[in-house]
Amino acid sequence: MNTTVNTLDATMAVVVGVLFALGFYLMLQRSLMRILLGFILLGHGTNLLLLVAGGTPGSPPVVEGKTTDPARVADPLPQAMALTSIVITFGLTAFLVALAFRSWRQSGHDEVRDDVEDRRIGTARERAGSDAAPERDGGDGGASPKEHR
User: Fold this and answer.
1) Interatomic CA distance for residues 39 and 98, integer angstroms
2) Looking at the whole model, is its pTM more than 0.90?
């Protein structure tokens, strides 16, 4: 079995990797427009990955009423998956654009703010954890957190 790496395959692997890396980096930002751009890059990377995974192009299954050799026929599954990915990416992109526009209209910027309620619950949980830790070491028999309140 001869497994040589084609230059085009290596180039496409690098391009897919760069698209995924940039997409994930942008999705970790606080600006909704950067999140949107990161999602678009992830969608393009996914489409490219699906098309590259399909392998070399083959011949169509039916040409002028004659069937071709099944070993030489192109696999339609990666193309169908790429089309499905395009539709899903378009729908989620439209949703994220609407979300960013509404956020900009309401607050004047598209930056995602911290959730105050989430922060309050997190600090309460940290305080409960720090209060309960010394008592557990003191041998209280493993009382439940409700008993520590």
Assistant:
1) 14
2) no
Q: Residue 62: phi, psi to the nearest 5?
A: -135, 125
Q: Mind giving me the DSSP string for 84-137?
A: HHHHHHHHHHHHHHHHHHHHHHHHSS-BPPPPHHHHHHHHHHHHHHHHHHHHHH
Structure tokens at 90: 């378009």
* Three-state DSSP class for residue 19: helix
d(CA 43, CA 95): 14
Residues 88-101 pLDDT 10s: 999 999 998 998 88
For 4, phi then psi, to 5°, come to -100, 145
Name the strand (E) or helix (H) holding 42: helix 32-53
